[in-house]
Amino acid sequence: ILKQAKEQCEFLIVAVGNDIFMQRRKGRQSTLSYEQRVKIVESIRYVDMVVEAENLDKISAYKKYKFDVMFAGEDHLNEKIYIEATKELKELGVDTIFVPRRIKVSSTDIRERIINECKYE
């Protein structure tokens, strides 16, 4: 997703959810800390800047970072908060591009596989 986003922009800002936000969003504690997730994302060559996300308020993020395109994985296409943000951002002149996953990788699936494999040992 990050590679596809970078192919369509000059400067890619990536928001990484802080630990409190991720706990609320996922309903569980993250395996990696916020600091660890930031280090991983910062090391990806397509990423120009990493910022902290405290919530999903895309309008607030726009006001702070003044981006002209928002990228999101297509798995968010039908989420109410993204639908509303897309409409509001469009009014501000910001396009939203939902990027398809070329490779189906899910941290939730990886977590479940690890848990299931450890149960049998």
Describe the protein's architecture and organization:
The chain is an alpha/beta fold. The chain has helices spanning 2-6, 19-26, 34-42, 58-65, 80-91, 107-119; strands spanning 13-17, 49-53, 69-73, 95-99. The strands form two sheets. The protein has a two-stranded parallel ribbon with strand order 1-2. The longest helix is centred in the C-terminal third of the chain and has 13 residues, at 107-119. It is globular and about 50 Å long. The mean pLDDT is 91.
Could you provide a short overview of the structure?
The protein has helices at 2-6, 19-26, 34-42, 58-65, 80-91, 107-119, and strands at residues 13-17, 49-53, 69-73, 95-99. With 121 residues, the chain is α/β, with parallel strands linked by helices.
Fold topology:
Layout: H1 2-6, E1 13-17, H2 19-26, H3 34-42, E2 49-53, H4 58-65, E3 69-73, H5 80-91, E4 95-99, H6 107-119
Parallel strand pairs: 1-2, 3-4
